[in-house]
Amino acid sequence: MSEKAVATASPEDLPILYIRPSSMSLSAALGELWAHRELLAFFAWRDLKVRYKQTALGVAWALLQPLFMMIVFSVFFGNLAKVSSDGLPYPIFAYCGLLPWQLFAYALTNAANSLVSNERLVTKVYFSRVTLPISSVLAGLVDFAIAFALLLVLMAYYGCAPSGGIVALPFFLLLAVGAAMAAGLGLSALNVRYRDIRYALPFLTQVWLFVTPIAYPSSLVPEGWRTLYALNPMVSVVDGFRWALLGAPSPGATTVAASTLVAAAGLLASMRYFLRVERGFADVV
After folding, report:
1. Torsion of CA 243, 248, 253, 254, to 10 degrees
2. Over the stretch 215-238, which tens digit does the pLDDT of each residue have?
3. Among 101, 207, 256, 271, which is least packed, fewest CB within 10 Å?
4. CB neighbours of 201 closer than 8 A, spacing ≥ 6?
5. What does the pLDDT average to over 68-97?
6. What interhelical angle do 90-117 and 196-210 show, nearest 10?
7. How far apart are CA 148 and CA 94, in angstroms?
8. Is the pLDDT of residue 24 over 70?
């Protein structure tokens, strides 16, 4: 129909154009994410600036949080409860476990709340929505790097030298990030529709902390429970960090394989669910 015909036609004669959101495949979503990589970096930088804006200590909080947690764990679990630490000084044993855990907990919490926290942005402008939870995970890596410097100081103080497994440390860091993204992506999508997630998340994180060998070694877990225990990806991450950096017992190939499989399957499932419901975010957020 020509422009002149459209201008003179009655509303009943005009064609109806239906605009429907289309489902995006995983490969297309990854391509769009790469195309928006500068936006991803901007969101991560913005999260860091907002987190430490108008704070007296600034990025020092990235050091103080795991440091104070290490002190509390050392007093109550190391000194009072006399929990085993696999022959390592308990303070550095606890800190080495807290280091990847703080990254995971920060990334999980902020990724799960990322869509709701950016409600105005999600409803006004189109962009790859997956950049919001992923940028929250990336922002946590900056805090991790700062806290890792303190771990090196503690290792020098206690005379702990890294083992040959230090070359595997990037893998365990990647596993922690993957586990955080797997849980964070799914929870962020659920949080848009069910705001109960916001209230359940602190409880979930607290429970997850105690089923991860941070205050205690994995050797305390009965042998019959080890396979089930390994389904928590953070078990391999924490044990892997201690093995690579402090020379603690290796987490074992079976444990690492089980944790990696769970994290990979969870990430794939969360990504698919996120893409399936993404088109309705602006309507219900």
Report:
1. -120
2. 999 989 888 888 889 899 999 999
3. 207
4. 108, 109, 112, 113, 187
5. 92
6. 170
7. 13
8. no
